[in-house]
Design goal:
7-stranded antiparallel β-sheet; 2 domains; single chain; mainly beta; 2 helices; about 45% strand; about 425 residues; 10-stranded mixed β-sheet; Jelly Rolls
Length: about 425
C-alpha cells in the first residue's frame, strides 16, 4: 500500500499539503542550499523530506532543494533488483524538474532511480526526460520495462557549461515517478567525443583493421567449454567488401599451432592493446546467425584482465544470444564477489521475430556509477553500483576493451547438433564508441 507523506508525520515547511492528503513541493521551496557536484563529490538526492543512509554508508539528501513539483509517496513493500530498497520505496510523483549546481563545466552522468510502487500497469504511466534542454529519455514506462516493485534506472550523460544541470520531466500518460537521482562528474569534455568508429570498409577478403582489432587464437574453450578453435585465418574472419566484418563458424576438423584439435573453427576479435575506453556509449549493428549451439556476442572486459583475472576485471555483455532461441536477446554484467566468487546481473528481452532475420543495434550507456544495455534503443537492463550488496564489488570503474566473437557450444550456448549449419556467419556493420 502506498502512503502519502502527510499521513506519516509532521510535514516539512518546504512542502504544501494537497487535497489528496499528500504533500506537494512548492516551486522554489528548499532546505539547505545544495552543494555543487565536483570531480570527487556527487549529488545524491532521495524523494523524501529527510536524509537516508544506504547500506554502503552513502548519504542521500532530501530532494527539496533540487526538485520542483510532485507528490511525495512511499511504500513498505519489498523492491526487487537492489541491495538498497529504501531508495526506491519513496517517490516523487509528477515532478516537473530538477536543478543541480556543478562546480565546473564538463560532462556529468545522471542516474534517475525509479520503481513502480503505485500499481500503474504497463502503458498507464509514461514520461520523458530532458537534460539541458535536449531530449535524454523518451517514453519511460517502468511498469512495462521492469514490472511492479522492481528497481529501474534512466541513465545518460550530459554536457553542462553554465554552472547548473537542468533536468526536465514531462508526463505524457499518467504522472512521472522518481525515487532518487544521482549526478556524478564524468569528464572535463563538454562536447561528445567519437572515440572509435569502425565501419569495416575495405576490400573483400581483407582482415579487420589491425590498428583496432587483434584475433584471439586458441581452442581450449576460453573457460566456458566452447568447442571451436578460434583462428586468425581469413576463412573465419574477413571484410566482405560491402562494409561488413564477417565472423564465420565452420564445421571442420582443425589442429592449431598449439597442437589442440577441434571440430569447429571460428574467430574472436578484441581491441586490447589497440583501443580501450572508460565511460560513454558503445554500439554495434550486427546480424547474428541462428542454429543450435551458436553463441554470438559483443562484449567488453576490463583491461586489467591479465593482472587480476576474471571476474575481478569485470565483464559487460552487450549482446549474447543462443542460436537455438533466436527470438531472445541477452545482456549481462559479471564481477567479483567476496571469497573469489562471481555475481551476475542478467536480463533477456523477447522479440516477436527472430533477431537473426536482420541487422539490429546493440548498445551500452556506461557511467561512473551505472550501466544500461539496449536492443534497438530499447533499454532492457539497468544497474547502479548502489544496487550491489556490500559483499559484491562494482568492477566497472576502469578502462575496458571490446570483443566480437561467434562461439560454438559451451556451457551457456549449448551443444550443436546435426541441424546446426555447417557454415554460419555473424555480420557486423559497425562498432561505434563515444565518450
Amino acid at each position: 500500500m502506498v502512503a502519502a507523506v502527510a499521513a506519516l508525520g509532521p510535514v516539512s515547511p518546504a512542502l504544501m499539503p494537497t487535497a489528496q492528503g499528500g504533500v506537494l513541493a512548492t516551486p522554489g521551496a528548499a532546505g539547505p542550499a545544495p552543494s555543487p557536484v565536483t570531480t570527487t563529490e556527487p549529488a545524491r538526492v532521495v524523494s523524501w523530506p529527510s536524509a537516508i543512509t544506504d547500506n554502503g554508508q552513502r548519504v542521500w539528501q532530501p530532494d527539496l532543494s533540487y526538485a520542483t513539483g510532485g507528490l511525495l509517496v512511499d511504500t513498505q513493500k519489498a523492491i526487487a533488483g537492489t541491495a538498497n530498497p529504501m531508495l526506491y520505496q519513496h517517490a516523487r510523483v509528477g515532478v516537473s524538474s530538477y536543478q543541480f549546481p556543478v562546480a565546473q563545466p564538463g560532462t556529468y552522468f545522471v542516474d534517475i532511480f525509479t520503481a513502480e510502487i503505485e500499481n500503474a500497469q504497463p502503458g498507464q504511466r509514461r514520461w520523458n526526460v530532458t537534460a539541458e534542454g535536449q531530449r535524454a529519455a523518451t517514453a519511460v514506462d517502468v511498469a512495462y520495462t521492469a514490472g511492479q516493485y522492481r528497481a529501474w534506472h534512466v541513465m545518460f550523460s550530459v554536457p553542462v557549461t553554465d554552472g547548473t544541470l537542468n533536468l526536465g520531466v514531462q508526463s505524457t500518460k499518467g504522472l512521472s515517478i522518481v525515487s532518487a537521482v544521482e549526478v556524478d562528474y564524468q569528464s572535463a569534455k563538454t562536447v561528445p567525443q567519437p572515440l572509435l568508429d569502425d565501419e569495416f570498409g575495405g576490400a573483400a577478403g581483407q582482415p579487420a583493421n589491425p590498428n583496432i582489432w587483434t584475433n584471439d587464437v586458441g581452442g581450449k574453450g576460453w573457460g566456458n567449454g566452447m568447442l571451436e578453435y578460434d583462428t586468425d585465418r581469413r576463412s573465419n574472419s574477413r571484410l566482405d567488401g560491402h562494409g561488413h566484418l564477417m565472423i564465420i563458424a565452420r564445421r571442420q576438423r582443425y589442429t592449431g599451432p598449439d597442437g589442440v584439435t577441434d571440430h569447429w573453427t571460428s574467430a574472436r576479435l578484441k581491441t586490447l592493446n589497440h583501443f580501450t575506453f572508460q565511460y560513454g556509449t558503445a554500439e554495434a549493428r550486427i546480424r547474428v546467425p541462428s542454429g543450435k549451439g551458436l553463441w554470438p556476442a559483443f562484449w567488453g572486459l576490463g583491461d586489467n584482465f591479465t593482472q587480476v583475472g576474471w571476474p575481478a576485471c569485470g565483464e559487460i555483455d552487450v549482446l549474447e544470444t543462443r542460436g537455438a532461441r533466436p527470438r531472445f536477446v541477452y545482456g549481462a554484467l559479471h564481477a567479483l564477489r567476496q571469497n573469489a566468487a562471481t555475481w551476475t546481473k542478467a536480463e533477456k528481452y523477447l522479440r516477436t521475430t527472430p533477431i537473426s532475420n536482420s541487422f539490429h543495434d546493440y548498445g551500452m550507456v556506461w557511467g561512473p556509477t551505472g550501466i544500461a544495455l539496449s536492443f534497438d534503443r530499447h533499454v532492457f537492463l539497468t544497474m547502479s553500483s548502489v544496487d550491489v550488496p556490500t559483499t559484491e564489488y562494482w568492477e566497472f570503474s576502469h578502462s575496458f576493451f571490446l570483443l566480437l566473437d561467434l562461439a560454438v557450444g559451451g556451457r551457456w550456448g549449448g551443444s550443436p547438433d546435426r541441424t546446426t549449419p555447417s557454415v554460419s556467419k555473424m555480420a557486423v556493420d559497425y562498432v561505434r564508441v563515444t565518450g
